[in-house]
Structures are given as structure tokens and as C-alpha cells.
């Protein structure tokens, strides 16, 4: 078994390795996966993201972790926590997010992984609050937010999505640490 930072029933969470770049590029260049984002990503953008996540983990002990299925050790996507600092009245914040390869959709992995990430953030890191943001049209992610016990707080126009009218209107969900 690999050295995971934490696990859930079916998933292992770890920091990124340079050898993960091909999987990340396959994920982020998939039009269906990136349906609720402004565009797919280039390999260079994926490398920058991966480096940001690696550095964030070394600094804070969290990131959007690479997630593997425990039984097969196949990469399924990423799930975890990240710092958000874009201009919004709730930032700076710690955000929970996920992105899975289509082969792993509709199996409960996003919900399972997000619950495990919340536990990690609250129990291990002692975070006070975790937020989640998605465009209003992203019903699958909003469904996960509800399933993991987050509460809708607000709707807002995302400043980084101002040039994308179909994505700009977003929801903000929040969960406080009660542990």
C-alpha cells in the first residue's frame, strides 16, 4: 500500500508526483470534465497547477490531492482543499473541490472523497470553516455539496468568471468545524 496522507473506504489521497502530469492533462483537457469551466487546460497549465498544489501541500499540509482507487491504485482525479484569495467578501478562505475522470463518475467517489477531505480539514488541520463554490449551472457539484452537509450561504458573481456569462453566477456553500 502506498503512503497516503489519508484514506477513505475506497480512496487514497496523496500529494502530486511529477509522473502524474499525463493523467492530469488527460483529465483537464477533457471537454466533458471541464464543462463548467471557461476552457480545457494545456499541459503547461496542468504543470503549473500541479506545482501549485505540491507547494501548497508543503506549506499547509493540504491541497487538491491526487486521489486513487485503493483496490486498483488507479488515479481517478483530485479532491481536497485549497486556499482562495480572489476578490470576494468571504475570502481568504479554504475551499473544498473535486474533479474526477468520467470513468469514475456516478460511483459516489466525489461525495466519499469530499467527506474524507472535510474530516481531514477539521480533525487533522483544525480548520474553523471550509467553503465550496460552483457555477449555479453545475448541478452535479452542488449535489455533492448538499450530500456532504454543507449549507448554501449565498449566490454571487464570481470575479474570475466575469467574461463567461453562463458560469459567472455562482453559489457559495459553507461548513463550520463542530468537532
From TrEMBL:
<dbReference type="InterPro" id="IPR016181">
    <property type="entry name" value="Acyl_CoA_acyltransferase"/>
</dbReference>
<feature type="domain" description="N-acetyltransferase">
    <location>
        <begin position="10"/>
        <end position="151"/>
    </location>
</feature>
<dbReference type="InterPro" id="IPR000182">
    <property type="entry name" value="GNAT_dom"/>
</dbReference>
<dbReference type="InterPro" id="IPR051531">
    <property type="entry name" value="N-acetyltransferase"/>
</dbReference>
<protein>
    <submittedName>
        <fullName>GNAT family acetyltransferase</fullName>
    </submittedName>
</protein>
<dbReference type="GO" id="GO:0016747">
    <property type="term" value="F:acyltransferase activity, transferring groups other than amino-acyl groups"/>
</dbReference>
<keyword id="KW-0808">Transferase</keyword>
<dbReference type="Pfam" id="PF13302">
    <property type="entry name" value="Acetyltransf_3"/>
</dbReference>
